[in-house]
Structures are given as structure tokens and as C-alpha cells.
Amino acid sequence: MRVKKLAIVLMLPVLLTGCWDNVDLADINIVTALGIDKAEDGKIIVTVQVIEPAALQSTSSGQARGGSAQPKPVFVESYKGETIYDALISMKSIVDKRLFLSTTQVLILGERFCKDGINEALDFLHRDYQSEYLTDVLVAKDVTPEQILKVQPDMEAIPAMYIKGTIENTAIRAKVKRTMLINLFKDIENKCRQVTIGQITKENEKTVKTEGTAVFKDGKLVGWLDQYQTRGYLFATDKVKSTVINIPVTNGKMSIEVSNSSGKIDVEFKNGEPARLSVQVRLEGIIGEYTGKKPLNSPDDIYKLEKILSQEVKKEIVMALNKAQKDYSSDIFGFGTVVHKYYPHYWKKVMDEWNDVFSKLPADIKVEAKIMRAGLIKSPMMKDE
């Protein structure tokens, strides 16, 4: 039933197409995922994952006609061309129908392509009337988009929907920077903040992992943040809605679920020049699990845990900021936005060199954590004897 509903959702953009561009389902290939990469010779490799409605119906019923092997619900094809548009048009020589892109759920960008700059992809996607602006965008690390799109998960008939589901789940845990195409169009035009895009890697032939962040500078990939650096970055930029943080305690461990968080960045000026970056984060959490042996009976016990939690979050923010400043010289946090808004005259002078200025500024990071509840019990299940 879930697969049937999914097929209907994917086909809705086709059915709702205006009369001026009427299409018949029998005459098109419904694209669920798009990959863009660059070959060693500099040409563009475009990969499409296409849904097979008949095979999808067979998959949902759990059997194929005559007891034969079930047909695959999707197929994946790649083509190399001079440009993205050229590769897509030329792909008609190996696929039987017109490619319909409005149903694209995920866009996977290759590492080699991103290192040379993503403006070409954004130019094509912005011009193409079929582009789906709510498409999730990811950068493939140590693997090609084609290899990602050929993954065959056991838990989902359509790999693109499986990938989209992992993005949603990981974003909830604040371990990936979720980026939709519409946001990418806006971010690439913003001179005050550098672009970041979520990262995807391949675990095996059935599994991918969407954790971490690709860091860009002037539209080109310059490096990566791991899952913990990503969370520090998201805390500072006020994009953490919920997550679980593990902290060390005496003779055990504790998992704290962050239920509320706010982050604020600022730039302190002195004598007309930026003197210091400022990051302030406030968060609230509850104890989800405690494997220590000491009861949590007093306010002092909770206060000590809050200090440890604050230190853990601060450590992740420091790691992310150090990466952005020292390794990449890329203001992904958007401190330039603050300067542009409150110090416009200074910004006009340094906007082209702001990343260099940003990379040399010291930072003051403050984290205030509150533990609101300890759960239904205050004492651990295992106590000191």
C-alpha cells in the first residue's frame, strides 16, 4: 500500500501538467533521482534513476506474473556530455522515452564536479522549468553519484525515497546539513555566507549514510565537516531542533535529548574594525539514559551535568569554527551577514576579502545548558553496593 501511494505522489506532477505541455505517462520516463559528476577528461556525467510504474505495481503486490522473477522498480542510466543539458538530451540515444525531471526527489553532486564549482549545475537547474525546487541536494564523498543511485536497499522499493528518508532522519538528529534546491539557489547568491550542502557516503550495496557536511568557498568544494562538527555548526547557526548528546559521567555514560535550542552569532567591533566573533547557544534537554551508579538526588548533581553538557556542545562548535577558519577560510556561519547588516560601510570595503578577515578573528563561544527533567526515576537501575 505504501509503494502504491508513493507511485501516485510521484506521478502527480505529471498528471497536473498544464495543457500547453500535455504529456502521456506512456511517453515519459519518471525521474526520481539525478546525479551530476565530472569525468577525468572534464566532460559532465549525468545519471538518472527512473521509476518503472509497471514494475512498481508488481513489487507492491509482492509477486510477478507467472511466478517469474520480479522486475526492478527502477533503472539507472548515465551519459557523458559537454554540458549537463547536452548529456541529458543525448541520453535519449540510450533510453526509450523523454526524461521527466519534475518528480526528482534527490540530487547527488559528485566530489570532482563540486571541486571545480557548482555554478554550472545551478545555472541549468534554475533555467529548466521542470526543476523541482524541494529536491534534496547532497554531495557524494569518496563515491560517485552513479554508485549511490545504484544502491538497492531492502527497506524501500525506490532508492531515491530511501535516501530522502535517511536525510530526514539524520536532520532530526542534527548530524547533516539538509539543503533543498530552492535554498541552494538563494545561498549561492549570498555574498555574506558561504554555501554548505549535506554529505552522503556509501556503506555497502544496500545502504548509504547521510551524515556530515560539504563546505564550499566561492561555489567550490573545499572540504568536509564530520557529524559532530556539523552539529556544532548547526548549534551555532540556530538550526538544531532536536538531537541526542552523550556525555561522560563517573563510572558510566549519559544520553541527553536536546528538546530546545537557540543559537546566535555576532561580530564585535572596536575602533571601526572587527575584533572578535561571538557565538551564544542556549539549550534545554532531558536525561534519556543513565548508566552510572550514583543517584541524581541534589540540584548540585544536575548543575554539574549541565556544565558537562555545555562543555560538550562548546567543543563541537569550536571544532566546526576551527575547520571553517583555519582549514577552509570559509565563513559558512554567516558572520558576514551581521557585518553587512550593522556595519555596511565597512562591509563595502572588505566584502571581497571577508573570508580572509573572518579566518583571523578570535572567537568567544558561550553555551548555557539546562536539564529540565531526569525522567521518571532519579536513581540509576544499578547502584553502588
TrEMBL record:
Pfam families: Spore_GerAC, Spore_GerAC_N
GO biological process, any: spore germination
Keyword Membrane: yes
Signal peptide: 1-21
Keyword line: Germination, Lipoprotein, Membrane, Palmitate, Signal
Domain (Spore germination protein N-terminal): residue spans on this chain: 21-201
Lineage: superkingdom: Bacteria
Subcellular location: Membrane
Cellular component, GO annotation: membrane
Protein topology in the membrane: Lipid-anchor
Domain Spore germination GerAC-like C-terminal: 211-375
Family membership noted in the UniProt record: Belongs to the GerABKC lipoprotein family.
Protein's name according to its UniProt entry: Spore germination protein KC
Organism: Caldicoprobacter faecalis
